[in-house]
Amino acid sequence: SNGSDNVFYKVIQGALNLTNHPRAGAMDRLSHIVDRISSECEQMGARRFVLFIDEAQRLSADDYEYLANIDDGVNQDGFRLFCVLVNQSDDTNADPKKGRCRIEDMPPHVVRRFFMADHSFRGLVGLSEIADALGRYDAMKHEGVPYTAHFAPHAYEGGWRLASEAPKFVAAIDELRSDARLSGNSDLPMMIF
Description:
The chain is mainly alpha-helical. 48% of the residues lie in helices and 9% in strands.
């Protein structure tokens, strides 16, 4: 091993909020991870543990093998590991020369194990989706009061809702895009809402 397995397992330990000894070896870290996952399943009465991996486009072929080792260990304990791999398709750092790999280049056992289905996530597109996102502030409550009622109580009492501002929001975005001479996809990341 070139030590990358130890680094990978250390990152997973951190994501699972596990304490780790700085000089622990890869096998100790792997065992610790498997024990935690199996213990969580046992405590919850569940047979499956879902592990979300964001920025999965940065995983190397070796990282998938290390993930398979975790899956094998959890399987041996009688539980299932289900991985949700979230890839950023527009990541300019996802360069195969840097050890990242494309699904076409992965071994069949990795593809069969971790790539059962593909679903594309997009940002918000169009008036109705933006109105829906803004409308969540009309419905979500903080201490029993909708957010829009908290921040604009008189307007809210008068029947105003943030969702009704969606056309103005879309028009402002379109104007900004036009002024900046931006063309193409105009998805809005959901994190801005």
